[in-house]
Please model this.
Amino acid sequence: MFMKQTYLVVIVAVLFLCCMCVPVGAVIQEVTLKGTVATLSQPKNTITIEHSRQYGCNYPASGAAVCSYTPMSVDVLTGTAPDAAAFSVFKTGDPVVAKSIGGAGETWITLAKLFGSRPNEDFVTDIVGDMGMIPTPLIGNYVVEATTVPDCSDCTGTTCTATSANVKVMSEGMDVFAKTLKPGESLTYNGRNDASSVAITFVRGQALSSTCPGKAGMTGPQAISVYVVKIVPPISATQGNIRTATTTRPDEALTPLPPTASTTSPTQIPTTKSGMLPLAAIGAIGLAGFILVMRKE
Model:
């Protein structure tokens, strides 16, 4: 009887470890990289980026994550533009942060134009595509957040067409403007006295079907939306040391922002930190050894 109870405890422990290590639902791979716009072809709807460096983080067992860009084996990558607006926002030679889905290149879901005169102190002035998970702060100490609202009658698998997006602008860590946008609608905030402004257009979007009543969570593609964001920098756009984080990379902030209860984007899917995997593996091996010992008894 004791042996059966012991096996039951061990099995439950193993299942618990598995739940900790496996994400709630798999998503299509997204790759974030930094480079320079090489060519744009509006007839083909493609943008080519050269000098590509991929963004990635290491998660040590203790301490903060260490994130950086490292050179890629492929220097030049071509992908489709997230929206036709990209061809009026970007030009050859522009430094960019880009996100692609399904691998490096092929399909850009985000293109963000960079501004900055010193290495590793870039700021985003323009975004075309999804705003989620951009590892570079916006210029002027601005932060933008958006959460899409699903049309629960128009869903396929894990995603639904978005009827609107709840968009919020933060300045210096404070909420300053919020508006619900339907596809094609825009907002503009220019309430500061430094000549800066933020303009956001919600082009189109998706929301997770799991947010609809009666829709159970399932494995499948993440929700992706398209926005066009334009930030006019403050007059004193030297930016000095006022580096601040975007809503998606708070670990990069030099000036921490107060916590906020809202989410950044429907594309923020929980992922497993690699720092947890060695601990989980060691735990699983130990449990397996324990089971073998108990069997011998």
Remarks:
- The chain has a mean pLDDT of 78.
- Residues 37 and 241 are 27 Å apart (CA to CA).
